[in-house]
Amino acid sequence: MVLKITHAKLFSALGALALATAVQADEPVTPPIPGVAAGGVVIELIKDGFKGTEGPLGYSDGSLLFTETNANRIVRIAPDNSISTFVENSNGANGLALNNSGEIIAVQTLKPQVGIVYPFDKQKIFVENFEGTPFQRPNDVVLDKSGGIFFTDSGTRPSKETPNPPASHPGVFYITPAGQLKRLANDIERPNGIQLSKDEKVLYVANTLGEHILAYDVGADGAISNRRNFARLDGWKNEDSAWSSGADGLAVDDADRLYVASNSGIEVFNSKGEAQGIIPLPKKPQNIAFAGTDKNILYAVGRGSVYKIPLLAHGIKERAK
To answer: CA 183, CA 130: separation in Å to the nearest integer?
Structure first.
């Protein structure tokens, strides 16, 4: 059989290919991931140049909130991409969560603590230390349906400003609905992002310095057990003579898939920990969240930038994060 291709068809195909190549060269696009992302959808850069980008949260009005940590504020991005300041003087808020009463809970870093930052007349401190040891770098937070609060403290690490920091005390913690603080784990090198499975029976923790996302079974009282390596990260790389996955923020969709911000971009895994694909970004993402009225927009923040990614998948509508 001889396949005949007319010049018109050939030039048409080449033109489409050239156009697709030009689009991909100018703007990043999603790869095809079954059930998650249609191929070729433009990943929109909303804005670059923020002073720190963390803690994205899909807000109740369909907007996105995130923390501009170095500017000490919480920023709102409306569905039309307009940007405004939501909270000034956030005490270095990092991770955010929204409870059933509409209160925004934040892990805060200037004066390390966990508490309510909005509404202003509801501001409250839940915890500032564990057994007399002050928190060091509260990082991320997620709530369960009973009102319990899971959060991470990534501890101290050397920096240009503090080359010899105090002894590090990283950990994973839980504040019960009654207000009791429990330390769940203190054996993770650098606990970072934290998330619950759709049924809240599994707790995921990102270990930035590790090769795997960790998973634990969650008991009715918030206690965790059965630590295991849930998924191996493609982002596991040797950078500056040190191995790191760069694992940071986590999100879960309505099909119980786990999304991980890592050195490779946004890695997607099914509920069994099997890799589904990677959405690469121009800059390394630090944290991610579903937002919008239909929760089919995945926002990624990192390195001063905010990206907007329309997906086939949807976040869990019954909970904010």
So the answer is: 8
Q: How many residues does the chain have?
A: 321
Of 254, 243, 246, nearest in space to 281 by CA: 246
How far, in Å, CA of 104 to CA of 84, rounded? 17
Q: What angle do CA 75, 73, 259 make, to 5 degrees?
A: 55
pLDDT (tens digit per residue) in 93-122 = 999 999 999 999 999 999 999 999 999 999
From CA 118, how far away is CA 93, in angstroms rounded?
A: 11
pLDDT, tens digit, for every residue of 237-279? 987 778 999 999 999 999 999 999 999 999 999 999 999 999 9
Over residues 296-308, the pLDDT tens digits come to 999 999 999 999 9
Long-range contacts from 166-172, C-beta under 8 angstroms, 24+ separation: 166/136, 168/136, 169/133, 169/136, 170/136, 171/130, 172/205, 172/224
Q: Are 156 and 139 in contact (CB under 8 A)?
A: no
The C-alpha atoms of residue 229 and residue 175 are separated, in whole angstroms, by 24
> Which stretches of 137-178 are assigned E, i.e. beta strand?
138-143, 149-153, 171-175
Q: pTM of this prediction?
A: 0.91
Q: Which CATH number fits domain 31-310: 1.20.1640.10, 3.20.20.140, 2.60.40.1580, 2.120.10.30?
A: 2.120.10.30
Would you kindly state where each structural domain of the chain is located, as residue ranges? 31-310
